[in-house]
Amino acid sequence: MTGPGACASQASAERHRPGDQRVMNAIRPPRGGATVGHVAELDAVAAGAVICLRRWCDGPAAQAQMREDFARALGPEAGGSAMRAFEELCDLCARHGRRPLMRHHVACKCIGADEACFANFVALASEGDREDAMLIATILVRADIAMCLLARAEAFGLALKRMSLRARPAQPPPPTAKILH
Predict the structure, then answer these.
(1) Which residues neighbour 44 within 8 Å (Cβ) at sequence distance 6 or greater?
(2) Any long-range contacts for 68-72 (C-beta under 8 Å, 24+ apart)?
(3) Which residue, of 43, 117, 119, 128, is most buried by count of CB atoms within 10 Å of its CB?
(4) Which helix (H) or strand (E) holds 76?
(5) Which pLDDT score is estimated for 7?
């Protein structure tokens, strides 16, 4: 992840006084983008939340594809409802977030700190762990918006859970035990 303020050269830092806030900000990588894990380490709901966040941020074409994917997986009504919850979740984070969320590329196998926070928030909300989810919500957005964010995360997380359950292959029945004696 690159961009303004992502990294500054050592020579640039030496031209300014130690402790100069401009230098401190120029050297510090963007908060929230630091790698903290890998997508493969997440459960289906958390991984789905990360992938959806990344895809959503890729623009209108990716968003339209997501709507189609959700409608195909859950049906037009439930898929549309899940996407509305996700759209509102993203909108609330964008409008009322404490700062912009950092994300990695859609195909990146690692997850950043902000993505991990978002994923854990959605996963906790989908499990009904409202107190811990509210705590994380207050990290993402202003406290007065946290309850609204939680409601959207619950709806979206439950949709991801339904999708993951439908995607699982049917488990074969356990083998019958043979009696040896």
Answers:
(1) 160, 161, 164, 167
(2) 70/159, 70/163
(3) 119
(4) helix 76-96
(5) 25
Q: Which two tokens stand for residue 18?
A: 């130690």
pLDDT in tens, 114-137: 999 999 999 999 999 999 999 999
* CA 100 remoteness from chain centre: 13
Mean pLDDT over residues 28-49, rounded?
89
- The pLDDT value given to residue 32: 86
Kindly report the pTM of this predicted structure.
Answer: 0.77
Which residues contact residue 87 at a Cβ distance below 8 angstroms, ignoring those fewer than 6 apart? 56
What SS3 class is residue 112?
Answer: strand
Q: Which of 47, 163, 152 is nearest to 108 (CA)?
A: 47
**Identity of residue 142:** R
In this predicted model, what pLDDT tens digit does every residue of 71-130 receive, in sequence order? 999 999 999 999 999 999 999 999 999 999 999 999 999 999 999 999 999 999 999 999
Rounded Cα gap, residues 181 and 65, in angstroms: 59
At which residue do the structure tokens 């549309």 appear?
Answer: 80
Q: CA-based angle 42:139:51, to the nearest 5?
A: 30
